[in-house]
Amino acid sequence: MLDWNQTRLHIVTGKGGTGKTTVAAALALGLAAEGRRVLLVEVEHRQGIAGLFDLPPLPYEERKVAVAAGGGDVYALAIDPQDAVLEYLQMYYRLGRAGKALDRMGALEFATTIAPGLRDVLMTGKTYEATRRRGAGGGFAYDAVVMDAPPTGRVTRFLNVNEEVTELTRVGPIHRQADSIMSLFRSPATAVHVVTVLEEMPVQETMDGVGDLRAARLPVGAIIVNQVRQSPLEAATLAAARAGSVDTSALRAGLVAGDLADLPHVTDETVDVWADGLAAEVVDHAERVSLEQEQYDLLHGLDADLLELPRLAEGIDLGSLYTLADRLRHQGVRG
Prior knowledge:
This protein is of the alpha/beta class. The chain is built from 14 helices and eight strands. It has helices spanning 20-32, 48-52, 81-93, 96-104, 107-114, 116-132, 152-159, 161-169, 173-185, 200-215, 235-242, 248-257, 268-300, 318-330, and strands at residues 9-14, 37-42, 63-67, 73-78, 144-148, 190-196, 220-228, 305-310. Strands 3-4-2-5-1-6-7-8 form an eight-stranded mixed beta sheet, sandwiched between helices. The two termini are 16 Å apart.
């Protein structure tokens, strides 16, 4: 099982629509609690982090975006491919002015547009640098880094792009850099968390994604089941409803007890129609709960930590992120 204290790089993936970016932000807040510093990195250039924290679009620089419970700080970085090229050329080849000249000529934009693999190299390289960076006192600049990564169907290739670079270059500084990145990604200091919801397609994509990650020797962290809805009905009632047995007389009595039958123009026939409608809703609800349990059983078979986050009726805002972060911490998430 995952050792949260040992993990420093948390990569969050998931099928589109499962709440991957929201979970990444909540995870960053949870890890930053009690005085820690966490960097939240966005690599898809969608400015999703800015929207979650109710901020204008983020520039290509690390900025503080939130204070976690207990005084910790969350910083965010939206990686821009062109700016990352310039930084890379300056950091490793000292091509400051030459790099800017290439940028003015449009060469960098051209290169990152026609070579998607180059963009992935730059995104992973910048994340690697932030994870390994040391502060003035010699310790790590960030206690943890959280990457809002591409969706499950693309994440293994995205993370594994530097493996291809090492095979292409064989020797030299580019080979050494790519090899160092892959060493970090495959180490116990990294965990790839997969976000899903209890529906057939996201769960199947989660299972396929976990298989791909393990085949590539990338460490799978937690399976985070998002938008979990708790049934208000008892197990016996759900079982009876799945068998098609619903006590409509009890539903009718409940409607009458609620004084609905005393409303103007409400007849006994109207109450009967309402009770029948509620009975159909109970059957549908019981079937959905049963299907969700089947998907949950499949996830249990993945041999990974399972975490749950609730479906929030009020939607997602900044306050909701703190609620989700607290739920994660109650399930063992630690920085």
